[in-house]
From TrEMBL:
Organism: Chryseobacterium pennipullorum
Domain called YokE-like PH: residue spans: 120-212
Pfam families per UniProt: bPH_3, SHOCT
Superkingdom of the source species: Bacteria
SHOCT domain residues: 257-284
Stated name of the protein: Short C-terminal domain-containing protein
Length: 287
């Protein structure tokens, strides 16, 4: 049986368990305080809470916090009472992202989810998230992706977290292997791979799709830039040779003209700083 509240993470007491109607559809329980808040939002939950999943209840709480922030006087429940709510926090916004991603996290992932506001940068958003076991150390936690990185975290029993981080620029690809009950997510990083056993096998395909798209876009941009550079290479070499004097030496005016062209190529990303410096030196040597 779960020993903590699915929403606030506080230890459940014998009094909490006497409610009997505070169980969620995915097996978690709400403490007396969170159960009272839930039924204040939707009175029907007093008899139907066991039909709702953690993500759905979290969504209800977030919606009411957002509504309350737009109505400083508070939110009026179905029974006519007015309840005051704090403005949404950074963690609330992150949980809202998780709901929007249709992530299927169980109550056991709550402690890791509650650490995300400390792990994510202020402007960093979630692209994918899944509950898993990191096969390299057999720790159970969550793996998530952002536009910058893939990260695994596991909340330690005595406080703090275990974190394994993989910057997107170092990831070659991500793949998944589906089995009957679960799938394995493989993060390939220059000859090595980090493997995660996902509790929900359907999470692997979506995770791979979104992360691989973010990996491929910078690579495609780099490939296009390289192709452009090769296409202009004959022109780069020709810049030093054209407009020469009949006597074999270029005039100062012609050289400065070529320097201008080199500058434009550098500004347009066709030449790197090193290539620009090399060609510039060749031209200046002719003065």
């Amino acid at each position: 049986m779960n020993t903590i509240c699915a929403l606030c993470g506080t230890p459940l007491t014998p009094t909490d368990m006497l409610i009997e109607k505070n169980k969620l559809a995915d097996g978690g329980y709400l403490c007396t305080g969170c159960f009272t808040k839930a039924i204040s939002i939707n009175r029907d939950l007093i008899n139907t809470l066991d039909q709702f999943y953690f993500a759905e209840i979290t969504g209800m709480f977030l919606k009411n916090k957002i509504d309350a922030s737009q109505n400083p006087g508070g939110i009026q429940s179905s029974n006519g009472n007015t309840y005051e709510y704090d403005a949404p926090t950074r963690l609330d916004a992150i949980k809202d992202q998780i709901v929007a991603l249709n992530a299927r996290l169980s109550v056991f992932a709550n402690e890791e989810v509650n650490e995300l506001d400390r792990v994510l940068d202020q402007d960093e958003n979630l692209l994918a998230i899944a509950e898993c076991i990191y096969l390299q150390n057999n720790r159970e936690g969550i793996v998530f992706a952002t536009p910058r990185r893939v990260v695994f975290i596991d909340k330690k029993i005595l406080g703090g977290i275990v974190r394994n981080e993989f910057p997107l620029r170092e990831i070659i690809s991500i793949e998944h292997i589906e089995n009957l009950l679960y799938s394995v997510l493989k993060v390939n990083i220059k000859g090595i791979s980090a493997e995660f056993k996902l509790h929900n096998k359907n999470d692997g395909r979506a995770f791979c799709t979104i992360v691989n798209r973010n990996i491929q876009e910078p690579q495609q941009y780099q490939k296009r830039s390289t192709e452009q550079l090769h296409a202009f290479q004959p022109n780069i070499s020709g810049l030093v040779k054209e407009n020469a004097f009949a006597a074999g030496k270029e005039s100062s005016e012609a050289i400065f003209e070529q320097l201008e062209k080199l500058g434009r190529l550098k500004d347009n990303g066709i030449l790197t700083e090193d290539e620009f410096a090399e060609q510039k030196k060749k031209l200046l040597d002719k003065l």
